[in-house]
Specification:
Helix content is 49%, strand content 15%. It is built from nine helices and eight strands. The strands form two sheets. It has a five-stranded parallel sheet with strand order 2-3-1-4-8, with helices on both faces. The chain is globular, with a radius of gyration of 17 Å. Bound molecules: adenosine-5'-diphosphate and adenosine monophosphate.
Amino acid sequence: MNIILLGPPGAGKGTQARIIEKGRGLVQLSTGDMLRAAVAAGSEVGLKAKAVMESGGLVSDEIVIGIISDRIDEPDCASGFILDGFPRTLPQAAALEDLLASKGKSLNCVIEMRVDDDKLVERITGRYTCGACGEGYHDKFRVPKVEGVCDNCGANDFKRRADDNEETLRSRLLAYYKETSPLIGYYFAKDNLVSIDGMADMSGVTGSIEAILNDKA
Ligand code: ADP
Ligand code: AMP
């Protein structure tokens, strides 16, 4: 099964992708995570992406299509994947369609997660992750069971993203509404879209997604 989680920054795409991948044997493909890894490694892609990401803009279609195309070819993607943060523009969506067709694959569904802007600000400004395993946390909505210790791997090294501040979030939201939200109409017209209430608590959102995936299976 191949699915897309579509939604603005802070909608809960990464959180839900990590939960679903564990339960269903799918692989989370986050272009944001891949680009941050490229920036950290100082690769050619990372050098091109760094300033754009810091400003809250979108990295070029050419770059992200290239990294997704390579990643989908890896063997762990054969049993299915969850795209998180890709596609983000109409050209990326068109390229994905061609890419999947050329590899004999297709999309099972696109799940749009709807969350109000003021809630996104609250989610983004409180977000942090485990530096060792990437598990996601939040100052209010998901704190570790033991303070300072990751529930998932026991590490005690947490980090916050430089672009998770209110000012950069404004640019990221503008990019979402201008470049990414047209994908809602694009996938609706293809009869591939299901929209859910992303304002619910984490387990409520997981329940909505599981119901959709059970229906599509
Ligand atoms: P995205 O990947 O869409 O940018 P994340 O999954 O990283 O968003 O979620 C953003 C922040 O909000 C994280 O700190 C996460 O723990 C928290 N979060 C995610 N889903 C919910 C939810 N349903 N209710 C409350 N907080 C949530
Ligand atoms: P995310 O982790 O999904 O919030 O993405 C962080 C940043 O990476 C974004 O603000 C963009 O600068 C960049 N990015 C991630 N995915 C894409 C994409 N599909 N297209 C363009 N830029 C992207």
